[in-house]
Amino acid sequence: xxxxxxxxxxxxxxxxxxxxxxxxxxxxxxxxxxxxxxxxxxxxxxxxxxxxxxxxxxxxxxxxxxxxxxxxxxxxxxxxxxxxxxxxxxxxxxxxxxxxxxxxxxxxxxxxxxxxxxxxxxxxxxxxxxxxxxxxxxxxxxxxxxxxxxxxxxxxxxxxxxxxxxxxxxxxxxxxxxxxxxxxxxxxxxxxxxxxxxxxxxxxxxxxxxxxxxxxxxxxxxxxxxxxxxxxxxxx
Length: 236
Ligand SMILES: [Zn+2]
Known about the structure:
By secondary structure, this protein is an alpha+beta fold. It has two domains: 3-82, N-terminal domain of MutM-like DNA repair proteins (Alpha-Beta Barrel); 94-223, Helicase, Ruva Protein, domain 3, CATH 1.10.8.50. Helix content is 26%, strand content 20%. It is built from seven helices and nine strands, in the order βββββββαααααααββ. The chain has helices spanning 71-75, 94-102, 111-114, 126-135, 149-168, 176-184, 189-192, and strands at 3-7, 10-14, 20-24, 30-35, 46-51, 55-60, 64-68, 212-216, 219-223. The strands form three sheets. The chain has a four-stranded antiparallel β-sheet with strand order 1-2-3-7. A three-stranded antiparallel β-sheet has the order 4-6-5, with no helix packed on it. The protein has a two-stranded antiparallel sheet with strand order 8-9. Helix 2 (94-102) crosses helix 5 (149-168). The longest helix is centred in the last third of the chain and has 20 residues, at 149-168. The chain is globular and about 55 Å long. Zinc ion (ZN) binds next to loops.
């Protein structure tokens, strides 16, 4: 095995013989890693297994597994070909996202719906949507076309940086110094983890205004009405 790659919620496991295994866990697949060939007790069905001398990596229950034999088979795969770039994809540049935001396809979409669209950007969980828009100080109902180039670049940078921070720091998307300070003051993980997500009616960590919860695309979204004004003000 040479590389593991995520594409949204799908995974590609690449091998040195040129084959790749596509797997999608849906809501029920589960990876388990154990001592080599020391299978865990489970009623789940084993669907895919990889072994080396020390360890076995086992995928249980997942129903969507395919062997793909070439890069072109990967690029034309029905699920993968519909996806935008993965937010954690190596080499993804903020400038690329900034261009996509400005494109005719996306410029008139509300940010709140755009950030749920896996064609635009894959791998953004629902909590990341709220956190990224807060960090970029953009109201969920704003559209890219209402934003300045600087705001779009800040949004693109926040999208990538926040996803990486969450991945590296156990899902903490709040400012890391602030999170540490709150933790030292006795706050629980669920309270210091996020800037706004799940914090309706609680004071914004920046300005003290009560955080608002709204529903967009059947999913809850949170924002600060003061830090993320709907109307653009004062920018060129
Ligand atoms: Zn605020």
